[in-house]
Amino acid sequence: MFCISNIDISRTTELKFNTILGNGSPPFLKGGFRGIFDMQPYNKNLKPPSRELRSNMTDAETLLWSKLRKKQILDLQFYRQKPLLNFIVDFYCPKAKLVIECDGSQHHTEEGLYLDKQRDKALNELGLVVIRFDNRQILTKLESVCEIIYNICQERLNINDKRISFPNMIQR
């Protein structure tokens, strides 16, 4: 199973701040305004559990992280177990506004599918695209999964240069 959530990306960052904060002024961040418009809202109480999840990743998450870390895809920074809104997403790339989820068996139940749909909708409202891979896909077809991620990032960043092609990441 591979899934991409549909989104409407017509909102501007200013409108997001108006909606989220109730006014037009961005929040104060330690370190000034560097990257302020890439900052997404999150529940501060989720930071300790996200740290715990980073220490206890599944085999599929660990394998995919080995291909996302250190800017291996289009020189993009990915974060793992990142709090966004009231959720902790498996992987997040702020520049491409991309969320990647690794779905285990609990996501294939009726309740799991419903909760995933609600979560995807909330993240889509921030202008994020959510893509989901089944753990089995990641473990058995890693190169295909990486190629899909690569192509989506390329599309999200409007990189249309045909000379740039997907590298063979498995041999790295």
Describe the fold and architecture.
By secondary structure, the protein is of the alpha+beta class. The protein contains six helices and five strands; from the N terminus they run E-H-H-H-E-E-E-H-E-H-H. The protein has a five-stranded mixed β-sheet with strand order 1-5-4-3-2, sandwiched between helices. The protein is globular, with a radius of gyration of 16 Å. About 19% of the residues have low confidence.
Which regions contain 5 or more consecutive residues with pLDDT less than 50? 6-37
Our measurement of the CA-to-CA distance between the termini, rounded to an integer number of angstroms, reads: 26 Å
* Rg on CA atoms, Å: 16 Å
CATH class: Alpha Beta
The secondary-structure class comes to alpha+beta
Strand neighbour order, sheet with most strands: 1-5-4-3-2
How are helices and strands ordered from N to C?
EHHHEEEHEHH
Strand content: 15-25%
Question: Major β-sheet, in short?
Answer: 5 strands, mixed
Question: In total, how many domains does the architecture comprise?
Answer: 1
The helix content, as a percent range, equals 25-40%
The shape, in one word, is: globular
Q: Overall mean pLDDT score?
A: 81
Instruction: Please provide the count of β strands.
Output: 5
Number of helices: 6
